[in-house]
Amino acid sequence: MFPYDEVSWSAVDGAMFMGWGGALPGFTTVIAMIICVAVLVVGQKSEMAKTKMFDK
Amino acid sequence: MEEQIAELAAKLAELEAASAGAAVTNTMFAETFYYLTIPLMIIIHAGFLAYEMGASRLKNVLSSGVKNILAFAFMIPTFYFFGWWIYWGLPTGITGSAGPAGISGAEYASSIAFGWGESAQYMGPNIADQASGVFFGAFALFAATTASIMSGAVIERIQTVGFIILAIVLGSFAWVVAAAWGWHADGWLVTKFGVHDFGAAGLVHAVAGFFALGVLINLGPRIGKFNADGSANHIPGHNMPLTVTGLMLIIVGFWGFLMACVIVPGEAWSWFGDKPATIYGTPITLSALSFNILMAIAGGIIGAWLLTRDPFWMMSGALAGIISTASGLDIYFPALAFIIAFSAGIILKPCADWLEKRGIDDAVGAVTVHGTIGLYGVVMLGIWGSGYPSLQGAAGEVPTINLMGQIIGAVVFFLLGFVPGYVVSYVLKMFGMLRIPEGAELAGMDLVKVPAEGYPEWGGEAPVTPAHPAE
Fold first, then answer.
1. Is position B467 within any domain?
2. B106-142: per-residue pLDDT in tens?
3. Which of B285, B336, B400 to mutate against chain A (most A CBs within 10 Å)?
4. What CATH number does residue B150 fall under?
5. Structural domain count, chain B
6. B397 in helix, strand or coil?
7. CB-based contact (8 Å) between A8 and chain B?
Protein backbone atom coordinates (compact mmCIF):
# COMPACT_ATOMS: atom_id res chain seq x y z
CA MET A 1 0.00 0.00 0.00
CA PHE A 2 0.98 3.61 -0.48
CA PRO A 3 3.02 4.59 2.60
CA TYR A 4 1.48 8.05 3.07
CA ASP A 5 -1.91 9.04 4.45
CA GLU A 6 -2.81 11.17 1.47
CA VAL A 7 -2.89 9.07 -1.72
CA SER A 8 -1.06 11.58 -3.85
CA TRP A 9 2.53 12.01 -4.89
CA SER A 10 2.28 15.62 -3.71
CA ALA A 11 2.43 14.28 -0.14
CA VAL A 12 5.73 12.48 -0.75
CA ASP A 13 8.94 14.18 0.27
CA GLY A 14 11.15 11.21 1.10
CA ALA A 15 11.21 7.43 0.80
CA MET A 16 8.55 6.25 -1.62
CA PHE A 17 9.19 2.55 -2.08
CA MET A 18 6.75 -0.22 -1.31
CA GLY A 19 6.53 -1.09 2.34
CA TRP A 20 8.22 2.04 3.64
CA GLY A 21 7.42 2.43 7.33
CA GLY A 22 6.44 -1.24 7.66
CA ALA A 23 8.08 -4.63 7.95
CA LEU A 24 8.22 -5.40 4.25
CA PRO A 25 11.68 -3.93 3.49
CA GLY A 26 13.35 -5.80 6.32
CA PHE A 27 11.42 -8.97 5.59
CA THR A 28 12.30 -8.96 1.89
CA THR A 29 15.94 -8.20 2.67
CA VAL A 30 16.11 -11.27 4.91
CA ILE A 31 14.38 -13.40 2.25
CA ALA A 32 16.82 -12.16 -0.40
CA MET A 33 19.76 -13.02 1.84
CA ILE A 34 18.35 -16.49 2.48
CA ILE A 35 17.90 -17.01 -1.27
CA CYS A 36 21.54 -16.14 -1.91
CA VAL A 37 22.80 -18.54 0.76
CA ALA A 38 20.38 -21.31 -0.23
CA VAL A 39 21.34 -21.08 -3.89
CA LEU A 40 25.00 -21.36 -2.99
CA VAL A 41 24.33 -24.41 -0.80
CA VAL A 42 22.28 -26.13 -3.49
CA GLY A 43 24.80 -25.16 -6.15
CA GLN A 44 27.70 -26.54 -4.16
CA LYS A 45 25.89 -29.82 -3.48
CA SER A 46 24.94 -30.41 -7.08
CA GLU A 47 28.36 -29.43 -8.44
CA MET A 48 30.06 -31.75 -5.97
CA ALA A 49 27.77 -34.57 -7.02
CA LYS A 50 28.66 -33.97 -10.65
CA THR A 51 32.38 -33.65 -10.10
CA LYS A 52 32.37 -36.93 -8.14
CA MET A 53 31.14 -38.66 -11.25
CA PHE A 54 34.50 -37.86 -12.80
CA ASP A 55 36.59 -39.07 -9.85
CA LYS A 56 39.10 -41.76 -10.76
CA MET B 1 20.62 56.64 -1.61
CA GLU B 2 21.18 56.80 -5.35
CA GLU B 3 24.35 54.78 -4.92
CA GLN B 4 22.46 52.08 -3.03
CA ILE B 5 19.76 51.94 -5.71
CA ALA B 6 22.42 51.62 -8.39
CA GLU B 7 24.09 48.87 -6.40
CA LEU B 8 20.79 47.02 -6.01
CA ALA B 9 20.04 47.39 -9.71
CA ALA B 10 23.46 45.99 -10.54
CA LYS B 11 22.90 43.03 -8.22
CA LEU B 12 19.47 42.43 -9.75
CA ALA B 13 20.97 42.44 -13.24
CA GLU B 14 23.63 40.02 -12.03
CA LEU B 15 20.97 37.69 -10.58
CA GLU B 16 18.92 37.85 -13.77
CA ALA B 17 21.99 36.99 -15.81
CA ALA B 18 22.77 34.09 -13.47
CA SER B 19 19.18 32.87 -13.66
CA ALA B 20 19.24 32.98 -17.46
CA GLY B 21 22.51 31.12 -17.40
CA ALA B 22 21.04 28.47 -15.09
CA ALA B 23 18.06 28.06 -17.41
CA VAL B 24 20.36 27.57 -20.38
CA THR B 25 22.41 25.06 -18.40
CA ASN B 26 19.28 23.12 -17.41
CA THR B 27 18.02 23.08 -20.99
CA MET B 28 21.39 21.89 -22.21
CA PHE B 29 21.43 19.25 -19.47
CA ALA B 30 17.96 18.04 -20.44
CA GLU B 31 18.90 17.83 -24.09
CA THR B 32 22.17 16.05 -23.32
CA PHE B 33 20.41 13.63 -20.96
CA TYR B 34 18.18 12.26 -23.73
CA TYR B 35 20.85 12.59 -26.38
CA LEU B 36 23.08 10.22 -24.41
CA THR B 37 20.31 7.67 -24.03
CA ILE B 38 20.36 7.23 -27.81
CA PRO B 39 23.89 5.79 -28.18
CA LEU B 40 23.31 3.79 -25.00
CA MET B 41 20.24 2.26 -26.61
CA ILE B 42 22.18 1.60 -29.79
CA ILE B 43 24.30 -0.67 -27.59
CA ILE B 44 21.14 -2.75 -27.22
CA HIS B 45 21.33 -3.29 -30.96
CA ALA B 46 25.01 -4.13 -30.87
CA GLY B 47 23.96 -6.71 -28.30
CA PHE B 48 21.08 -8.09 -30.34
CA LEU B 49 23.34 -8.26 -33.37
CA ALA B 50 25.99 -10.27 -31.53
CA TYR B 51 23.40 -12.41 -29.78
CA GLU B 52 21.51 -13.33 -32.94
CA MET B 53 24.60 -13.97 -34.99
CA GLY B 54 26.04 -16.13 -32.23
CA ALA B 55 22.77 -18.06 -31.97
CA SER B 56 22.76 -18.74 -35.72
CA ARG B 57 24.48 -21.67 -37.31
CA LEU B 58 27.54 -20.91 -39.37
CA LYS B 59 25.61 -21.10 -42.63
CA ASN B 60 23.23 -18.33 -41.51
CA VAL B 61 25.40 -16.07 -39.39
CA LEU B 62 25.65 -13.09 -41.73
CA SER B 63 22.07 -13.20 -42.96
CA SER B 64 20.92 -12.98 -39.35
CA GLY B 65 23.10 -9.90 -39.00
CA VAL B 66 21.82 -8.34 -42.22
CA LYS B 67 18.23 -8.79 -41.08
CA ASN B 68 18.92 -7.20 -37.72
CA ILE B 69 20.83 -4.23 -39.13
CA LEU B 70 18.19 -3.61 -41.76
CA ALA B 71 15.37 -3.68 -39.19
CA PHE B 72 17.13 -0.91 -37.29
CA ALA B 73 17.56 1.11 -40.47
CA PHE B 74 13.90 0.84 -41.51
CA MET B 75 12.60 1.50 -38.04
CA ILE B 76 14.01 5.02 -37.83
CA PRO B 77 12.40 6.54 -40.96
CA THR B 78 9.08 4.74 -40.53
CA PHE B 79 8.87 5.90 -36.94
CA TYR B 80 9.62 9.38 -38.25
CA PHE B 81 6.95 9.11 -40.97
CA PHE B 82 4.08 7.89 -38.79
CA GLY B 83 5.13 6.18 -35.55
CA TRP B 84 5.75 9.41 -33.70
CA TRP B 85 2.35 10.71 -34.82
CA ILE B 86 0.61 7.59 -33.52
CA TYR B 87 2.14 8.05 -30.06
CA TRP B 88 0.76 11.56 -29.72
CA GLY B 89 -2.42 11.01 -31.69
CA LEU B 90 -4.00 7.92 -30.17
CA PRO B 91 -3.70 7.97 -26.34
CA THR B 92 -7.43 8.33 -25.78
CA GLY B 93 -8.23 5.53 -28.24
CA ILE B 94 -8.66 5.15 -31.97
CA THR B 95 -10.91 8.22 -32.16
CA GLY B 96 -7.90 10.51 -31.85
CA SER B 97 -9.70 12.90 -29.49
CA ALA B 98 -7.78 15.17 -27.10
CA GLY B 99 -7.13 13.97 -23.55
CA PRO B 100 -7.30 15.82 -20.21
CA ALA B 101 -3.57 16.62 -20.07
CA GLY B 102 -3.83 18.48 -23.37
CA ILE B 103 -0.91 16.71 -25.00
CA SER B 104 -2.70 14.17 -27.15
CA GLY B 105 -5.18 13.72 -29.97
CA ALA B 106 -5.00 13.75 -33.75
CA GLU B 107 -4.99 17.54 -33.95
CA TYR B 108 -2.19 17.87 -31.41
CA ALA B 109 -0.16 15.12 -33.08
CA SER B 110 -0.61 16.74 -36.48
CA SER B 111 0.74 20.00 -35.06
CA ILE B 112 3.99 18.52 -33.71
CA ALA B 113 4.73 15.12 -35.23
CA PHE B 114 4.43 15.34 -39.00
CA GLY B 115 7.30 16.09 -41.32
CA TRP B 116 5.37 18.59 -43.41
CA GLY B 117 3.50 21.88 -43.11
CA GLU B 118 3.74 23.94 -39.91
CA SER B 119 4.38 20.79 -37.91
CA ALA B 120 7.70 20.26 -39.70
CA GLN B 121 9.30 22.92 -37.49
CA TYR B 122 9.30 20.32 -34.68
CA MET B 123 10.63 17.56 -36.90
CA GLY B 124 13.95 19.09 -37.91
CA PRO B 125 16.72 21.42 -36.79
CA ASN B 126 15.20 24.34 -34.87
CA ILE B 127 17.23 26.65 -32.63
CA ALA B 128 14.18 27.24 -30.43
CA ASP B 129 13.43 23.55 -29.89
CA GLN B 130 15.98 21.50 -27.99
CA ALA B 131 13.58 18.75 -26.97
CA SER B 132 11.69 17.27 -29.94
CA GLY B 133 14.69 15.71 -31.66
CA VAL B 134 16.07 13.96 -28.60
CA PHE B 135 12.62 12.74 -27.53
CA PHE B 136 11.99 11.45 -31.03
CA GLY B 137 15.40 9.78 -31.02
CA ALA B 138 14.78 8.01 -27.72
CA PHE B 139 11.35 6.79 -28.84
CA ALA B 140 12.67 5.67 -32.22
CA LEU B 141 15.22 3.56 -30.36
CA PHE B 142 12.45 2.03 -28.23
CA ALA B 143 10.80 1.14 -31.53
CA ALA B 144 13.96 -0.40 -32.89
CA THR B 145 14.28 -2.46 -29.71
CA THR B 146 10.88 -4.06 -30.29
CA ALA B 147 11.93 -5.07 -33.81
CA SER B 148 15.15 -6.60 -32.52
CA ILE B 149 13.24 -8.59 -29.90
CA MET B 150 11.17 -10.21 -32.65
CA SER B 151 14.19 -10.58 -34.89
CA GLY B 152 15.96 -13.16 -32.74
CA ALA B 153 12.99 -15.50 -32.58
CA VAL B 154 12.68 -15.92 -36.34
CA ILE B 155 16.28 -16.39 -37.43
CA GLU B 156 17.46 -18.90 -40.03
CA ARG B 157 14.30 -19.21 -42.14
CA ILE B 158 12.50 -15.89 -42.60
CA GLN B 159 12.62 -13.81 -45.79
CA THR B 160 14.33 -10.48 -45.44
CA VAL B 161 11.63 -8.24 -46.92
CA GLY B 162 8.84 -10.08 -45.15
CA PHE B 163 10.71 -9.64 -41.91
CA ILE B 164 11.21 -5.92 -42.51
CA ILE B 165 7.48 -5.47 -43.14
CA LEU B 166 6.76 -7.25 -39.85
CA ALA B 167 9.37 -5.14 -38.06
CA ILE B 168 7.74 -1.95 -39.32
CA VAL B 169 4.28 -3.09 -38.22
CA LEU B 170 5.63 -3.93 -34.79
CA GLY B 171 8.05 -1.07 -34.24
CA SER B 172 6.26 1.80 -35.88
CA PHE B 173 2.68 0.76 -35.15
CA ALA B 174 1.81 -2.02 -32.67
CA TRP B 175 4.01 -1.07 -29.74
CA VAL B 176 3.40 2.63 -30.38
CA VAL B 177 -0.34 2.09 -29.93
CA ALA B 178 0.43 0.26 -26.68
CA ALA B 179 2.63 3.16 -25.58
CA ALA B 180 -0.02 5.73 -26.46
CA TRP B 181 -2.61 3.80 -24.44
CA GLY B 182 -0.51 2.76 -21.46
CA TRP B 183 2.55 5.01 -21.36
CA HIS B 184 1.16 8.51 -21.72
CA ALA B 185 -0.51 10.77 -19.17
CA ASP B 186 -3.63 10.80 -21.39
CA GLY B 187 -3.53 7.07 -22.18
CA TRP B 188 -6.91 5.46 -21.56
CA LEU B 189 -5.36 2.44 -19.87
CA VAL B 190 -3.77 4.83 -17.39
CA THR B 191 -6.61 7.27 -16.80
CA LYS B 192 -9.38 4.63 -16.68
CA PHE B 193 -7.63 1.60 -15.17
CA GLY B 194 -4.57 2.99 -13.41
CA VAL B 195 -2.15 0.95 -15.51
CA HIS B 196 1.45 1.65 -14.53
CA ASP B 197 4.33 0.30 -16.59
CA PHE B 198 7.27 2.58 -15.92
CA GLY B 199 9.96 0.58 -17.72
CA ALA B 200 7.71 -0.80 -20.46
CA ALA B 201 7.61 -4.46 -19.40
CA GLY B 202 4.25 -4.82 -21.10
CA LEU B 203 4.12 -2.19 -23.76
CA VAL B 204 7.56 -2.89 -25.23
CA HIS B 205 8.61 -6.36 -24.12
CA ALA B 206 5.32 -8.22 -23.98
CA VAL B 207 4.00 -6.61 -27.16
CA ALA B 208 7.19 -7.53 -29.03
CA GLY B 209 7.37 -11.01 -27.50
CA PHE B 210 3.80 -11.94 -28.39
CA PHE B 211 4.08 -10.32 -31.80
CA ALA B 212 6.95 -12.75 -32.33
CA LEU B 213 4.71 -15.62 -31.19
CA GLY B 214 2.08 -14.69 -33.77
CA VAL B 215 4.76 -14.68 -36.46
CA LEU B 216 6.29 -17.97 -35.31
CA ILE B 217 2.97 -19.79 -35.59
CA ASN B 218 2.78 -18.93 -39.30
CA LEU B 219 6.50 -19.14 -39.96
CA GLY B 220 6.93 -22.65 -38.59
CA PRO B 221 10.03 -24.28 -37.13
CA ARG B 222 13.45 -24.56 -38.73
CA ILE B 223 14.06 -27.74 -40.70
CA GLY B 224 15.36 -30.30 -38.26
CA LYS B 225 14.01 -28.67 -35.13
CA PHE B 226 11.29 -31.22 -34.48
CA ASN B 227 11.23 -34.95 -35.03
CA ALA B 228 8.33 -36.89 -36.48
CA ASP B 229 7.15 -37.80 -32.98
CA GLY B 230 7.02 -34.12 -32.01
CA SER B 231 10.12 -34.18 -29.82
CA ALA B 232 12.48 -31.25 -30.23
CA ASN B 233 16.14 -31.14 -31.20
CA HIS B 234 18.44 -28.51 -29.79
CA ILE B 235 19.93 -26.47 -32.63
CA PRO B 236 23.04 -24.89 -31.18
CA GLY B 237 24.24 -21.58 -32.50
CA HIS B 238 27.76 -21.40 -33.84
CA ASN B 239 29.16 -19.14 -31.12
CA MET B 240 27.84 -19.23 -27.57
CA PRO B 241 30.42 -16.74 -26.23
CA LEU B 242 29.27 -14.19 -28.82
CA THR B 243 25.65 -14.79 -27.83
CA VAL B 244 26.34 -14.37 -24.12
CA THR B 245 28.41 -11.23 -24.71
CA GLY B 246 25.59 -9.88 -26.85
CA LEU B 247 23.16 -10.45 -24.00
CA MET B 248 25.46 -8.55 -21.67
CA LEU B 249 25.56 -5.67 -24.16
CA ILE B 250 21.77 -5.61 -24.25
CA ILE B 251 21.82 -5.21 -20.49
CA VAL B 252 24.29 -2.33 -20.77
CA GLY B 253 21.98 -0.67 -23.26
CA PHE B 254 19.01 -1.12 -20.99
CA TRP B 255 20.45 1.46 -18.64
CA GLY B 256 19.96 3.93 -21.45
CA PHE B 257 16.50 2.56 -22.23
CA LEU B 258 15.34 3.00 -18.65
CA MET B 259 17.10 6.35 -18.31
CA ALA B 260 15.09 7.54 -21.29
CA CYS B 261 11.90 6.66 -19.40
CA VAL B 262 12.63 9.52 -16.97
CA ILE B 263 11.36 13.07 -17.50
CA VAL B 264 13.98 15.55 -16.32
CA PRO B 265 12.92 18.59 -14.23
CA GLY B 266 13.03 22.31 -14.82
CA GLU B 267 11.86 22.62 -18.42
CA ALA B 268 8.59 23.98 -19.77
CA TRP B 269 7.55 20.41 -20.66
CA SER B 270 8.74 18.88 -17.34
CA TRP B 271 6.34 17.61 -14.71
CA PHE B 272 8.27 19.31 -11.91
CA GLY B 273 10.67 22.19 -11.54
CA ASP B 274 12.80 20.43 -8.97
CA LYS B 275 12.57 16.66 -9.36
CA PRO B 276 12.56 14.07 -12.14
CA ALA B 277 9.37 12.18 -12.95
CA THR B 278 8.17 9.10 -14.77
CA ILE B 279 6.28 9.44 -18.01
CA TYR B 280 3.12 9.43 -15.84
CA GLY B 281 4.32 12.42 -13.84
CA THR B 282 5.03 10.39 -10.73
CA PRO B 283 8.35 11.16 -9.02
CA ILE B 284 11.41 9.01 -9.58
CA THR B 285 15.16 9.24 -9.14
CA LEU B 286 18.03 7.72 -11.06
CA SER B 287 19.15 6.34 -7.69
CA ALA B 288 15.92 4.35 -7.52
CA LEU B 289 16.74 2.88 -10.90
CA SER B 290 20.31 2.06 -9.90
CA PHE B 291 19.21 0.16 -6.78
CA ASN B 292 16.48 -1.78 -8.49
CA ILE B 293 18.02 -2.53 -11.87
CA LEU B 294 21.18 -3.93 -10.29
CA MET B 295 19.24 -6.07 -7.81
CA ALA B 296 16.95 -7.28 -10.58
CA ILE B 297 19.84 -8.28 -12.83
CA ALA B 298 21.42 -10.19 -9.96
CA GLY B 299 18.17 -11.92 -8.97
CA GLY B 300 17.47 -13.02 -12.54
CA ILE B 301 20.95 -14.45 -13.04
CA ILE B 302 20.90 -16.34 -9.74
CA GLY B 303 17.45 -17.78 -10.41
CA ALA B 304 18.41 -18.96 -13.88
CA TRP B 305 21.71 -20.41 -12.67
CA LEU B 306 19.95 -22.41 -9.98
CA LEU B 307 17.79 -24.12 -12.55
CA THR B 308 19.92 -24.32 -15.70
CA ARG B 309 23.67 -23.70 -15.07
CA ASP B 310 23.68 -22.51 -18.68
CA PRO B 311 25.30 -19.12 -19.46
CA PHE B 312 22.77 -18.44 -22.21
CA TRP B 313 19.89 -18.82 -19.79
CA MET B 314 21.76 -17.01 -17.03
CA MET B 315 22.17 -13.92 -19.14
CA SER B 316 18.62 -14.31 -20.39
CA GLY B 317 17.76 -14.47 -16.69
CA ALA B 318 19.44 -11.11 -16.22
CA LEU B 319 17.20 -9.68 -18.92
CA ALA B 320 14.20 -11.42 -17.39
CA GLY B 321 15.15 -9.90 -14.04
CA ILE B 322 15.01 -6.40 -15.45
CA ILE B 323 11.84 -7.06 -17.44
CA SER B 324 9.98 -8.69 -14.54
CA THR B 325 10.52 -5.60 -12.40
CA ALA B 326 10.46 -2.94 -15.13
CA SER B 327 6.86 -1.89 -14.50
CA GLY B 328 7.66 -0.82 -10.94
CA LEU B 329 11.36 0.05 -10.97
CA ASP B 330 10.35 3.46 -9.68
CA ILE B 331 8.74 2.13 -6.50
CA TYR B 332 9.99 -1.37 -5.72
CA PHE B 333 12.18 -1.87 -2.70
CA PRO B 334 15.48 -3.35 -3.96
CA ALA B 335 15.20 -6.61 -2.02
CA LEU B 336 11.66 -7.09 -3.34
CA ALA B 337 12.93 -6.44 -6.87
CA PHE B 338 15.58 -9.10 -6.27
CA ILE B 339 12.99 -11.65 -5.17
CA ILE B 340 10.68 -10.98 -8.12
CA ALA B 341 13.62 -11.14 -10.53
CA PHE B 342 14.81 -14.37 -8.91
CA SER B 343 11.40 -15.91 -9.46
CA ALA B 344 11.50 -14.76 -13.10
CA GLY B 345 14.90 -16.39 -13.54
CA ILE B 346 13.47 -19.62 -12.11
CA ILE B 347 10.39 -19.80 -14.36
CA LEU B 348 12.20 -18.73 -17.51
CA LYS B 349 13.45 -22.05 -18.86
CA PRO B 350 10.32 -24.08 -17.95
CA CYS B 351 8.20 -21.48 -19.78
CA ALA B 352 10.44 -21.73 -22.86
CA ASP B 353 10.29 -25.54 -22.71
CA TRP B 354 6.50 -25.41 -22.46
CA LEU B 355 6.35 -23.36 -25.64
CA GLU B 356 8.76 -25.66 -27.45
CA LYS B 357 6.66 -28.68 -26.55
CA ARG B 358 3.82 -27.02 -28.42
CA GLY B 359 5.82 -26.94 -31.63
CA ILE B 360 7.01 -23.34 -31.45
CA ASP B 361 10.60 -22.89 -32.57
CA ASP B 362 11.68 -19.69 -30.86
CA ALA B 363 15.40 -19.71 -31.65
CA VAL B 364 16.45 -17.45 -28.76
CA GLY B 365 13.59 -17.70 -26.26
CA ALA B 366 12.34 -14.20 -27.08
CA VAL B 367 8.66 -15.04 -26.58
CA THR B 368 9.39 -16.22 -23.07
CA VAL B 369 12.00 -13.69 -21.99
CA HIS B 370 10.15 -10.67 -23.34
CA GLY B 371 6.54 -11.81 -23.75
CA THR B 372 5.78 -14.10 -20.84
CA ILE B 373 8.09 -12.37 -18.38
CA GLY B 374 6.88 -8.96 -19.57
CA LEU B 375 3.30 -9.84 -18.66
CA TYR B 376 4.51 -11.44 -15.43
CA GLY B 377 6.11 -8.11 -14.54
CA VAL B 378 2.99 -6.10 -15.32
CA VAL B 379 0.87 -8.37 -13.12
CA MET B 380 3.47 -8.50 -10.32
CA LEU B 381 3.20 -4.74 -9.95
CA GLY B 382 -0.56 -5.11 -9.55
CA ILE B 383 0.05 -7.50 -6.65
CA TRP B 384 2.76 -5.51 -4.88
CA GLY B 385 2.03 -1.92 -5.87
CA SER B 386 -1.72 -1.70 -5.37
CA GLY B 387 -2.78 1.59 -3.88
CA TYR B 388 0.02 3.68 -5.35
CA PRO B 389 -1.19 6.66 -7.40
CA SER B 390 -0.46 5.85 -11.03
CA LEU B 391 -0.55 9.48 -12.16
CA GLN B 392 0.48 12.83 -10.76
CA GLY B 393 -2.47 14.69 -9.25
CA ALA B 394 -4.52 15.40 -6.15
CA ALA B 395 -5.65 12.58 -3.86
CA GLY B 396 -8.91 11.06 -5.05
CA GLU B 397 -8.57 12.60 -8.49
CA VAL B 398 -6.05 10.22 -9.95
CA PRO B 399 -6.31 6.45 -10.48
CA THR B 400 -4.28 4.09 -8.35
CA ILE B 401 -2.37 0.98 -9.35
CA ASN B 402 -4.54 -2.12 -8.87
CA LEU B 403 -4.34 -5.78 -9.77
CA MET B 404 -7.36 -5.78 -12.07
CA GLY B 405 -6.07 -2.76 -13.93
CA GLN B 406 -2.68 -4.39 -14.43
CA ILE B 407 -4.34 -7.60 -15.65
CA ILE B 408 -6.43 -5.60 -18.11
CA GLY B 409 -3.26 -3.86 -19.25
CA ALA B 410 -1.53 -7.22 -19.66
CA VAL B 411 -4.39 -8.57 -21.79
CA VAL B 412 -4.39 -5.46 -24.00
CA PHE B 413 -0.60 -5.63 -24.44
CA PHE B 414 -0.83 -9.31 -25.33
CA LEU B 415 -3.48 -8.63 -27.96
CA LEU B 416 -1.66 -5.60 -29.38
CA GLY B 417 1.31 -7.85 -29.97
CA PHE B 418 -0.14 -11.20 -30.92
CA VAL B 419 -2.98 -10.15 -33.23
CA PRO B 420 -1.00 -7.93 -35.64
CA GLY B 421 1.91 -10.39 -35.58
CA TYR B 422 -0.34 -13.30 -36.50
CA VAL B 423 -2.46 -11.46 -39.07
CA VAL B 424 0.35 -9.72 -40.95
CA SER B 425 2.53 -12.83 -41.02
CA TYR B 426 -0.47 -14.84 -42.25
CA VAL B 427 -0.96 -12.38 -45.12
CA LEU B 428 2.77 -12.48 -45.92
CA LYS B 429 2.60 -16.27 -45.93
CA MET B 430 -0.29 -16.16 -48.40
CA PHE B 431 1.85 -14.06 -50.74
CA GLY B 432 4.90 -16.30 -50.31
CA MET B 433 6.84 -13.57 -48.55
CA LEU B 434 7.32 -15.13 -45.15
CA ARG B 435 9.60 -18.15 -45.36
CA ILE B 436 12.53 -18.90 -47.61
CA PRO B 437 12.27 -22.03 -49.80
CA GLU B 438 13.43 -25.32 -48.32
CA GLY B 439 16.44 -25.65 -50.62
CA ALA B 440 17.75 -22.25 -49.63
CA GLU B 441 17.21 -23.02 -45.94
CA LEU B 442 19.17 -26.25 -46.24
CA ALA B 443 21.96 -24.62 -48.24
CA GLY B 444 22.20 -21.80 -45.75
CA MET B 445 20.94 -18.26 -46.04
CA ASP B 446 24.40 -16.72 -46.24
CA LEU B 447 25.16 -18.65 -49.41
CA VAL B 448 21.85 -17.56 -50.92
CA LYS B 449 21.61 -13.94 -49.80
CA VAL B 450 24.92 -12.51 -48.63
CA PRO B 451 27.91 -11.80 -50.88
CA ALA B 452 30.34 -12.30 -48.01
CA GLU B 453 31.46 -15.03 -45.63
CA GLY B 454 31.46 -14.83 -41.85
CA TYR B 455 34.49 -17.07 -41.39
CA PRO B 456 36.09 -17.47 -44.82
CA GLU B 457 39.13 -19.42 -43.63
CA TRP B 458 37.28 -22.32 -42.08
CA GLY B 459 33.58 -21.86 -42.51
CA GLY B 460 33.15 -24.06 -45.58
CA GLU B 461 34.27 -27.19 -43.85
CA ALA B 462 32.32 -26.74 -40.64
CA PRO B 463 29.68 -29.36 -39.94
CA VAL B 464 26.08 -28.43 -40.58
CA THR B 465 23.99 -28.78 -37.43
CA PRO B 466 21.81 -30.51 -36.75
CA ALA B 467 22.14 -33.42 -39.15
CA HIS B 468 18.81 -34.65 -40.37
CA PRO B 469 15.79 -35.04 -38.14
CA ALA B 470 15.44 -38.46 -36.65
CA GLU B 471 13.01 -40.59 -38.62
1. no
2. 999 999 999 999 999 999 999 999 999 999 999 999 9
3. B336
4. 1.10.3430.10
5. 1
6. coil
7. yes
